[in-house]
Amino acid sequence: MIAGEDVPSDHCQAMPDNPPSRVMSLKKPLHRQTHGLIAQPSAMASGFAPGKCILFGEHAVVYGHPAVAVAIDSGVRVSVERSNEWTLEGIPFEPSRHPHISHILNAVFEYEGPPLKMEVESNLFSAAGLGSSAALSNAIGAALQAHINPGQSLDPISLARMGHSAEAMAQKGRASPTDTATSALGGCIVVSGQPVDGTKHVFDAELETPEGIREWSINSVDLPDSLREAYLVIGFTGEMSSTGKMVADVAKRLERHPELREEMNSIGRITSAGLTAMSAGNLEAVGMAMDACHGKLRLLGVSSPSLESLVEAARPHSLGAKLTGSGGGGCMIALARDPQRVAEAIEVVGGRPLISRLGAPGVRLLED
Ligand code: MEV
Hints:
The strands form 2 sheets. Strands 1, 2, 3, 4, 5, 6, 7, 8 and 13 form a 9-stranded mixed sheet that branches. This protein has a 4-stranded antiparallel sheet with strand order 10-11-9-12. The chain starts with 6 loop residues before the first helix and ends with a strand. The model is unreliable at about 5-40 (pLDDT under 50). The chain is of the alpha+beta class. The chain is about 35% helix and about 25% strand. It folds into 2 domains: about 45-225, Ribosomal Protein S5, domain 2; about 225-355, GHMP kinase, C-terminal domain (Alpha-Beta Plaits, 2-Layer Sandwich), CATH 3.30.70. The protein is globular. About 55% of the residues are buried. The chain binds (R)-mevalonate (MEV). (R)-mevalonate binds near residues 59, 129, 131 and 243.
């Protein structure tokens, strides 16, 4: 297992049966000029990209509703250097087992240079709703760019688009740009089908999905200082979960039970209320919106007994708690003024806690 990669995409879930979906927003490809232009690649280049937590709007965002996510302190580091053979973490690189990495090397960079030795280090729980595959895509994109064009500054928007195309390919065409944009840009990101008042527009993304073309506006929000009084406590259930499978399950459930669309609409409304509370720095209201969002996600069928147990343990000591990401296992989050106390409560019921600030910096190059 490659640390940081969304394991089920690459290991538990077969490669997509469909041809990769077209991400129409790659208007500004990052690098297609690798042929013959790698005369002086850097000796070793390293990039780091953070994971993310979705505070509101997971699943609904795939259908154009808004989502709010923050970058977290933990993430994925990738280093690449020229070598005599292709390796990943010291063993021969098998492209078919690593669709995110292969997609970025081949479809985005059209890399035809010498073999690379690639190392991946992660302090994220993998396949757990923390955006590990998005962080991996962004970190490898950053490292590759620095390797191929040393000295050139990073373009987080291009990296976000590139990562989104890799997610779309791994999730059979159903992927919002939330994870990749949050990991690339850092801070607090709002992704929505429409422009969102009170946010700064950063870029737009478009994707041809099995349900038709989806468009998203990606926006950033400056968090008021009062929100810095609270921390996110992430609780890992210990159960890995495949985003692709969970998103496909929700699509099937919606087809069979069209009335669930109303729950999606409710998630959209809760997300807007949560965002208003965040912008006002009202921590109590943010927590209440998190609790409400969790209730709706349960109705969509994406919670699990282990997630319920961690959410229940965290709630008495936190402002709000909910599952985060695709659900079906993976992680929950709690917003807390006393994060240690919540971390202990999570540990007592068998979860693995991780504490983070709300809104860490985005993708960056690392000096070696
Ligand atoms: C995954 O972190 C969040 C989902 O909404 C899927 C997506 O946005 O692509 C479940």
